[in-house]
Structure formats: structure tokens, C-alpha cells
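pinned: reference chain
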Amino acid sequence: MAGISTDKRERIESLVYDVMKVLDPSGDNKQKYKDKFESMDTNKEFDEWLSDFLEDDGENFYLETEPFEKEPNMESVKKAANILDIELEEYIYYPNEDGEEIRSRTKVPTGLII
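pinned: its C-alpha cells
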């Protein structure tokens, strides 16, 4: 197995940093992930971590915030979604009484915040 290239690793790291910086302008979360990634001395270590991360549905990137102090706002969430090319609103389809699918008239929020 070839493993991850330096270019791909840098693009992944950059994406994580860009999203964290938008959601947390203090830079604390970006620094947390920068420290984590820099502790992986080789691309092989990073590739192994990434493979485990992607295979485990329980794994995720976490944004640590101080309540009422440095919480992300809707503008920053929209900017992060734009960086990730994620739609926050979509048309939804649901069945009517006859079982036919009906599309919502307008786009509705579809994001999940836990």
C-alpha cells in the first residue's frame, strides 16, 4: 500500500485548520489540531490515524468552546459549510397520503448539530 502523499496530507491538514479558524477565531482549536498532526512525525503515522478515524463512526472533529464567550455564530457556521462544500438547506421529499413523493416548497435546514 502506497500510503498518503505529503501533498494530500497538507491539503487535509489545511482544510481542518481553515474550518477551525473560521469557527474559532481565537485559534485555540486550530492549534489543538496542529499540535496533534505535528506529533505524527511521518506520513505513515498520519495515514494510519486517518484510516482509523475514517473507519470509526464514533470518531469526529470536535470544536471546543467556552459557553457564551467564543461560541460560533451562524455566519461562521455558513462560512465553514462553504469551505467544506456542505449544503445547510435542501429541498426535502416526503410521501403524501397516497405514497407519492412531494418536494418541499422551499429549502429547509438539514444540518445536524450535536
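why pinned: The mean pLDDT is 91. The chain is about 45% helix and 10% strand.
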